[in-house]
Write a structure and sequence with these properties.
This protein has 2 domains: 89 residues, Sandwich (Immunoglobulin-like); 96 residues, Immunoglobulins (Immunoglobulin-like), CATH 2.60.40. The chain is 23% helix and 39% strand. It has a 4-stranded mixed beta sheet, with no helix packed on it. The C terminus is likely disordered.
């Protein structure tokens, strides 16, 4: 006999307790009352039984997450065995998924890393994407119950940086409060592609400059000729004015 309670010490009614003697095929069951107490009757002396919380009733419906201890092994004699107590843990109303990340150069790449949570049954459905916190520890509340995949993303260009991240599967249906980690990752850089990308810029600038120069040559020539013409016309006018001053006036008297 024993008592089943919650972690807070509150007695839990309606929990099924089973006793099995696997070697001899014996089975007995009892259900807790309003005080959380149960009593298994009909156990045979000189027999070893395994006592556990049965996965039926509230346990089977998902309201009970797990029990501690998972099971007790006893050998029945001719006296009652007491204090076979269990603590059961109920599913909280809200799911909580937490984890932490480890990897080389994590401080350098930190601002480029994202945590991605996807549905395991539908990989095209993303449940959450968010930047990795500075502590490298994350927590997500109220995700849908079910199976999910947790991995890292890198927002740097995929042509020059390749991220390899662990993918961890969790089941929030079976356990509503789960911590995963460490989630490990590696980022590989392709320096050759970076150099090839930057190299064509200089010939392009030089080519544009040459084209612009050829286009400008006729305009420069026209401008030069116009300036020369203005200078020539200015010089001619000055000579004519001076010539007029040198002609003597005739007197008529």
């Amino acid at each position: 006999m024993g008592v089943v309670t919650l972690l807070s010490g509150q007695p839990k009614e309606g929990i099924s307790i089973e006793a099995r003697a696997e070697s001899r095929g014996f089975y007995e069951e009892a259900v807790t009352d309003s005080s959380g107490s149960y009593r298994l009757r009909g156990l045979l002396p000189e027999t070893t039984y395994t006592i556990r919380v049965a996965k039926k009733g509230k346990f089977a419906s998902g309201r009970i997450e797990r029990a501690s201890p998972e099971e007790l092994s006893i050998k029945v004699e001719y006296e009652d065995i007491k204090q076979l107590d269990f603590v059961v843990f109920e599913h909280p109303e809200m799911t909580i998924l937490s984890g932490h990340v480890e990897g080389k150069r994590i401080k350098e790449l930190h601002s480029h890393l994202r945590v991605e949570i996807m549905s395991a049954t539908d990989p095209l459905r993303t449940e959450a994407v968010f930047p990795l916190p500075l502590s490298n520890f994350f927590q997500v509340k109220d995700l849908p119950r079910g199976r999910h995949l947790v991995q890292l993303q890198c927002v740097l260009p995929s042509t020059t940086h390749r991220l390899r991240s662990e993918v961890i599967e969790v089941d929030l249906e079976r356990q509503s409060n789960i911590h995963v980690g460490p989630i490990k990752f590696e980022v590989e850089e392709d320096h050759q592609k970076q150099e090839l990308t930057a190299a064509p810029v200089y010939p392009l600038i030089a080519g544009i400059s040459v084209i612009a120069l050829f286009i400008s040559i006729p305009r420069i020539r026209d401008l030069h000729q116009a300036i020369a013409g203005l200078q020539l016309s200015g010089s001619t006018g000055t000579v004519k004015k001076d010539a007029k001053r040198l002609i003597p006036r005739k007197k008529t008297w």
